Every structure is written in C-alpha cells, then in structure tokens.
Amino acid sequence: MFHLVLVNLFRNKLRTVLTLLSVLVALFLYSSLGAILDTLQAASDSGSRERLATRHAIALTNFLPYSYKQRIAQIPGVKRVCTQVWFGARDPQDRGGFFTQFAVDNDFWPMYKKDIRIVEATKPQVALGVPAGQDPKLAAYLAERPACIVGVGLMKKKNWKLGQTIHLDGTIFPGTWDFVIRGTYDKQPGGTWDNEMLLFRQDYLVEKGLKGNELTGVFKLELNDKSQSAAIARQVDAMFENSDNATKTESEQAFGAGFVSMFGNVPFALRMIGFAVVFTILVISANTMVMSVRERTSEIGVLKTLGFSDGSIFGMIVAEAAIITTGGGLIGALLAKFGLEGKPLAFIPQMVIRWETVFTAIAIAVLLGAVSGFIPAWQASRLRIVDALRRVD
Amino acid sequence: MAWVDIRDVHKVYERDTQKVTVLDGLSLQIQEGEFVALMGPSGSGKTTLLNLIGGIDQPTSGDLVVAGTNIAALKGAQLAKWRSATIGYIFQLYNLMPVLTAQQNVELPLMLYKMSGAERKKRASFALELVGLADRSTHYPRQLSGGQEQRVAIARALVSDPKLLLADEPTGDLDRKSGEEILQLLERLNREFKKTIIMVTHDPHAAERAHRLVHLDKGVLTA
Ligand SMILES: Nc1ncnc2c1ncn2[C@@H]1O[C@H](COP(=O)(O)OP(=O)(O)OP(=O)(O)O)[C@@H](O)[C@H]1O
Ligand SMILES: [Mg+2]
Predict the structure, then answer these.
(1) How far is residue B146 CA from its own chain's centroid?
(2) Which residues surround ligand 2, an ion (CB under 5 A)?
(3) How far is CA A43 from the centre of its chain?
(4) pLDDT tens profile B193-213
(5) Strands lying side by side in the sheet with B4-15
(6) Residues of A in contact with B90 (CB under 8 A)
(7) Which end of chain A is less enclosed by CB atoms within 10 A, N or C?
C-alpha cells in the first residue's frame, strides 16, 4: 500500500519536486521570520529581572557622568553598582565578523558571578592580591590597564590565545586599540550572557577613548531586595531629574526589551507575512493535489472495484500530500536552523532559532499536507465506482 | 436458489429532473460454473447489469443474491470486502495501473490480504504464468500490446481466486487474433478452474464460446 503511495509520488516527478520546493521555500521563509522573532526575543530576554539598568533619559547612546555611581550606591537597598559601555569596535582582520565588546568597571565581576565565570587566566609575574570579593584569577587583568577577558566561544572562533595582544579598530571611539588577553570566561548555566564577548576595563576607555573624561554608558544596580526595584528605580531617576543628564531606570530585562522595541511593529508584520506565505502555499499545494488526483479518477475506480475501501483510498492520498509537504517543510525548516543560526543580524551578533520554531514549521508542513490532501482525498473516497469508471469511456 | 439469483431488479438513473429506467424488472438465474454471454445493443444496460452483479453499483429495487450473499443489503466496506473475495473484474480497456509493472499490477488485489511479500509474489507469478506472460512480469503496461495488457488484467482478476469473473467487452478493443487468445483463456478458466464467467460482448463469435446466451434490450431480457 505504501509502495502505491510512493509510485504515485514519482508518477509526475517534476510536479512532485516543484510542490516540494515551493513548500520548502515557504517554510524556510517562515522559519527565517521566526528566527528573527526568536533573535529579538532572546535579545530582550538577556538580562535579569532582578537587576536595574540606569541609562541616559534622552538616548541610549548618550553618556552619563561616572560620578553618578557613588550617589546611586548610597541609595538604601542598592547593594552594588557597576558600569558598562558599549564599545562596538571591529576586528581589522575579520571585518564582517562582528562581536560584542563592553568596557566594564571592576564591580562588574562580582556582580555577574552568576552569569559568567573565569575559566583560565594569565598568572601574574609577582604574586598580587585582589580586592575583596574579586576572583583571584582576575589578578593579572586588574593589574594591567589594556587587559581584557574574552569569552571561550569567541576565543575559539577567532583562534586567539591567552596572553596574546589583539588589535581592534574603534568605531564609536576611533583609533587602533590594543588589548592583552588576560583571561577567558564561560557562561554559567542559567545565566543571561553568551560566551562570545570581549570585556575590558572602564579606566582604559576613559584614558584612551574619552580623553580622561570620567563618563560611562549604563549603570547596573544590584539590589538587596528585588521587590523594592520599582521604588528604587523611581528614586534614582528622581535624584538626577533636574541635572543636565537625567536618567531612566528600569529592570535589566526591560532595558533589553527597549533595545528590541526600536524595531516597533516589525515583529507583528513578520508574523503576518509568515502566515500569508503559509496560506498561499496551502492553496497552491491543495490545487496541485486536486489536479493530480483528478487525473487518476479511473484508477481510483479500479482500486475500489478490486476491493480497496474508501478509507484506504483516503489515507493513500492524504499520505501522498503529507509526504510532499512534510519533506519540503522538514528540509526548509532545518535549512533555516542550520543555515541561519549563529549568523549576525543587524546589531545582534548571532541569530538564534529556537527548536520550538523549527518544530512549529515542521508541524505546519504536516498540517499543510493533511489539509491540502484532505479535499481530493475526500472527493476520491466519496467517488462512486460507476462514475469513476465512466470517465474513461 | 440459483447461484446468481437476480429477481425483479430495477435500476433508475436520475439525470437532472429526468428519470432514466435502465433495468426494468429484470430477473436472471445463473448456475455455478456457467459461462454466460450477455449481448444487446448499445445503451441496453449490459454494463449496468454487470456492475450490479459485481457489487460496484446498487439496484434501485429488487433482490440480488450472488454466491449466496444478498449483496443489495451490503454497505460500503462490507461490499468492498465481498468484492475482493468473490469477484474478478475484467474491463474493456484493461485499466491497469500505468505506474506499476505487470507483476505489481497483479499483486495489487493481494494487498488487501494479510500475507507475506514472498507469498504475494509467488501467487502473482503463478497467475502471470497462467495467462502466458511470465516473461513480461517486469514490463509496464505501456510496454505491452493490448492483448498482453488484457491478459495481465485477467491475471489480476484471477489472483485472489474469486469464484465469479465478470468481463465487460474484454475483446472489444482487440484485433481478431488477440481477442481469440483472450477467449481461449476465458474458456480454459471456466473449464479447468471452474470459474463462473459472465461476459458482455457485441461479437457473436465471442458469444459462441459461452454455454448460454442472454439478450438484453431496453432493460429487459429477450430470449
Ligand atoms: N451513472 C449514470 N448516470 C446516468 N445514466 C447512466 C449512468 N450509467 C449508465 N447510464 C445510462 O444507462 C443506460 C445503459 O448504460 P450501460 O452502460 O449499462 O449500457 P451498455 O449496454 O453497457 O452499453 P454499451 O454497449 O454502449 O457499453 C445508458 O442510456 C446510459 O446512458
Ligand atoms: Mg457497456
């Protein structure tokens, strides 16, 4: 019986291949759109609900005085404050291969202990102590201004070695920047950071990039009690309300989402396009199936004469449609998964496609087959033998 | 009761608002092992009658007992099962599956039975041998002559060993020589394998092979 389904699939190879291809392209497209949504979602998910982020009220790209740190830290309930500045430099050896860099101050490390951990580090020449609360592996990094810590994923990608000096071309902060890799980190399970970033010292940025001006990008606040976060956020913003540089404070997660909201209604539009594509393919493949079954009307009459039941005829035709669309969908969705994942998307270093998105696409393909096969299968199963046979005469 | 017992069968087709009476109170008895030729002008209802006997169409009224089963009372799936066990159907235009080889076409009816692939193959090969086409088993219908196609179709009708063969103008599309081979084959199936055969034909020569001639005209039997 299955053999009969297969030979029918190969009866008109060109038609089968074209239908399969159209489903493949449609579901590749669908998965790609899903990938963009997934990537944006992942970007907005990075960041914890428990930390606060304070940025310039006017724009993300404006700097804030580093001196705010002291004043924020004095607010009751704030356990710790650190700073992060988006650096955005390029590797002259590999211009396309964008990766994330941040300048961070020393309080960053204890604050993000749960997200990243130092894997390997250069041993300092003389035994150096580290300030309380710092990972002893950071000794060499803390002792040298142009030092940096690099994610193990990035190390592998770039084929960098510990101790190596690397050169980056600044964009926001022009010039050639030299960094010495003094340690590597990996992401912690359940953490919100990936392992493909370069992290370096805030004071190096101030010295070389900001002409000695003590400025920074974003303050991250660790709280004693997360239930206080709304109140503390209000307090921070109130503190700087009437200064030249007013602030905007929100949860670290909302901060990430704000990043994504720059895309406005794009996610909704993408979803609509995805559905439109799938619907179009449904109509096309249903039409193709109806035609291909109609050509076989008399054969279906013969099968029924031989004693094949209406149900088995129905099943054969649905199976035929489902094989075509599932095949196309499977290839399309997996192509998107393995072809797009890890590739950069706008400012986001690597796209993510969740398996849920891939499986949804495949499920849609199966459904597509079932629905597009249903109409001709139903017609064929209802067909009376005498009418089916009469069509040849 | 006769083996095939048709009593007062009516078949009325409704075309738009018009009613066309094709069979008008027809009664016919056929004994097991008979070879019956059914003749009559075009449109007289021969195919319709054959379809009723074969259980691929239902009478408007009347009783139809075939091989001990009142088929007018059977529904859908039951009828399909009965057909596959009881009837071998031979069409004027062979109606083989173009995508299957001769061997696969003959195996097709056996798909409905639980049996191993090897068993299926064995039976189909035997049926092909019986019709003299063992050497053509891997050929596709388009690679066969009309007479050969019809012999494959006969093998397909035979393979599940049904008691009753129904043939609707089996030589209607063949030249004299190929038609003669088909008729000899049917005769042999009747004589050696005790198949009951009902054959529709326009050809008086073909009809001579039968034990009995039945004439149909305007939906009723005429001597
Ligand atoms: N499904 C149908 N719907 C309407 N009318 C039908 C249908 N099937 C058959 N008829 C009509 O019934 C009559 C008998 O048809 P049938 O096919 O039984 O004749 P026949 O004796 O086999 O003719 P032929 O020798 O040409 O094959 C014809 O007038 C035909 O048009
Ligand atoms: Mg006819």
Answers:
(1) 17
(2) B 47
(3) 7
(4) 999 999 999 999 889 989 999
(5) B18-30, B4-15, B61-66, B69-70
(6) none
(7) C
Q: Which of B11, B48, B96, B108 to mutate to test the interface with A (most CBs of A within 10 A)?
A: B108
Which residues of chain B lie closer than 8 angstroms to A311, CB-CB?
Answer: 77
What one-character-per-residue DSSP string does A33-71 give? Answer: HHHHHHHHHHHHHSS-SSEEEEEESS-TTS-EETTHHHH
Q: How far is B181 from chain A (nearest CA, A)?
A: 24
Average pLDDT over residues B63-82: 90
The answer, as to whether pTM is greater than 0.80, is no
CA distance B127 to B158: 7
Helices (H) and strands (E) counted in chain B, each on its own, are: 7, 10
Domains in chain A: boundaries: 2-43+265-390, 63-244
d(CA A105, CA A185) in angstroms, rounded, equals: 16
Strand A147-151 relative to strand A176-187: parallel, antiparallel, unpaired? Answer: parallel
Please name which ligand lies nearest the alpha carbon of B202. 1
Q: Are B11 and B59 in contact (CB under 8 A)?
A: yes
Alpha helices in A46-189 (DSSP H): 68-73, 108-111, 139-142, 152-158
Alpha-carbon distance B72 to B3, whole Å?
15
CA–CA separation, A34 and A342 (whole Å) = 14
Least CB-CB distance to A305: which of B89, B97, B104? Answer: B89
User: Which residue of chain B has the CA closest to A306?
Assistant: B84
Q: What is the ipTM of this complex?
A: 0.94
Cα–Cα dist A263/A362, whole Å: 27
User: Is residue A260 pLDDT above 70, yes or no?
Assistant: no
Q: Taking CB atoms and an 8 Å cut-off, how many pairs form between chains A and B?
A: 63
Q: Does domain B4-222 have CATH number 3.40.50.300?
A: yes
B135, two tokens? 């050497």
- One-character DSSP codes across B142-179: GGS-HHHHHHHHHHHHHTT--SEEEEESTTTTS-HHHH
DSSP reduced 3-state for A151: strand
Distance from chain centroid for Cα A201: 27
Q: DSSP per residue over A356-393, as a string?
A: HHHHHHHHHHHHHHHHHHHHHHHHHHH--HHHHHHTT-
Q: What distance in Å separates residue B99's CA from the closest CA in chain A? A: 6
**Distance between CA A206 and CA A199 in Å, rounded?**
15
pLDDT (tens digit per residue) in A314-373: 999 999 999 999 999 999 999 999 988 877 666 665 678 888 999 999 999 999 999 999
Residues of chain A contacting residue B99, judged by C-beta atoms under 8 Å apart: 7-8, 10-11
- The set of residues, in sequence order, having a beta carbon less than 8 Å from that of B118 and lying 6+ positions away, is none
User: Which residue ranges make up each domain of chain B?
Assistant: 4-222
Give me Rg for the CA atoms of chain B. Answer: 17
pLDDT in tens, A22-59: 999 999 999 998 888 887 777 666 666 678 999 998 88
